[in-house]
What we know:
Elements: H1 2-12, H2 20-26, E1 31-35, E2 38-41, E3 46-49, H3 52-55, H4 64-76, H5 89-101, E4 106-112, H6 115-132, E5 140-144, H7 153-158, H8 162-165, E6 175-178, H9 183-186, H10 192-210, E7 215-220, H11 236-247, E8 250-254, H12 268-272, E9 278-281, E10 293-298, H13 299-308, H14 322-337, H15 340-359, E11 365-371, E12 374-379, H16 399-409, E13 412-413, E14 415-417, E15 420-423, H17 431-453
Parallel strand pairs: 3-13, 5-6, 5-7, 7-8, 8-9
Antiparallel strand pairs: 1-2, 2-3, 4-10, 9-10, 11-12, 12-15, 14-15
Helix pairs in contact: 4-14, 5-14, 6-13, 10-11, 15-17, 16-17
This protein binds pyridoxal-5'-phosphate.
Amino acid sequence: STAEWQAADAAHFLHPFTDFQALARKGSRVIAKADNLYLWDSEGHKLFDAMSGLWCVNVGYGQKSLVDAAARQMLELPFYNAFFQTTTPPAVELAELLAEVAPPGFQHVFFSGSGSEGNDTVVRMVRRYWELQGQPGRDVIISRWNAYHGSTMAGASLGGMKYMHAQGGLPIPGITHIDQPYWIEHGRGMDRADFGKLAASWLEQKILEVGPDKVAAFIGEPIQGAGGVIVPPETYWPEIQRICDQYGILLVSDEVICGFGRTGQWFGCQTVGSRPDLITFAKGVTSGYVPLGGVLVGERVAKALIEQGGEFEHGYTYSGHPVACAVALANIKLIREQGLVEHVRDDVGPYLAAKFEALRDHPLIGDTQTCGLMGAMLLAKAKTSAAGGPELFDPALEVGMVCRSHCFANGLVMRAVGDRMIIAPPLVITRAQVDELMGLIHRCLDLTVAELRT
Ligand code: PLP
């Protein structure tokens, strides 16, 4: 029963990113099954999953071809590793298919089990690259505040979540941060295009401060996801690219969220127009059906590793796990067959963007942003302020959490990052389901307004 699961859950399961005492007081919501975009809890309540689980279930729940691929592979060969010059058919076929769907110049992949491990791999790989160039001192990686790059020591250090750094002595040495390109926080009153260039110039400032001969790489998500779906001004990424080119530093695109169609292209770097050297991926590669991640390795780094490198002393038991790779193959084939990337780019993405723009008329909404099937709405006290842009709520009111609890109580899974309410629904969403989602969002916003008035 639900009560029994909740009791056992509180007694034994240390959940990630969860307040244990709150969980003990209230109990977890037990999610018992799912289909398409919908979840059902153990009490039979239906929920619209506007977050694709944790940004991962790109093809939606219940896709039989992924399940069949896993079952077939488990019977054929449930595990074999990729160490010591062995390989497996699904891993090879996936590596080949990834080279086909990746941006031009990405012919190689290093597999991991998750996005965090992918970013750990990035840290070692970029430092290895510079060692091979005879510049072992070139080991500093620049990242951004408010970024999320995972929970391993390197992933959490690359991340710019200060509440994570506060636990466990992070960041590890050789990682430093610049501010994010968030106009509301850093650019109010400025022209947005000018602000994009200003925010990119902070990278150059940091490179000069650290010393150009010490900087190995810059890492960023094309669109910051867990940071609150921060869509940078169009001027930002071209300027970041120019700076990376000028100083010869490697550009890493963390596409754990943005990859596999989320932004309306196969990879987010194609949407924002950057040319990374490395691309981290996970989540959408298998639509979350089984864990898999990795790093797509561009020509510059691959050439050095292969031609000069000897052995790269790095790898995971599950690098190229055959079952995960078989599911990824089925997932990518489905995305292709159903034309889901084009569906996001040409149909539901623009449709959602228009709906979000119209949401700005709602009294609680101060700003909205979308890119493909990522969307954010900022809950604000007033639409304008003396500082420029909307007037924000006092953070102590936790208006985002108020709204989120109305969502949860009314059958909608939407996430709150401060006062930014964010969505990332499965790519299979239809226009009719976007309408259904907007209806739910309106209802929850109205309930939030009503609660704030009392
Ligand atoms: N990078 C980004 C941008 C992410 O959003 C996440 C997870 O949300 C990660 C890395 C870490 O991935 P994982 O949770 O698979 O380790």
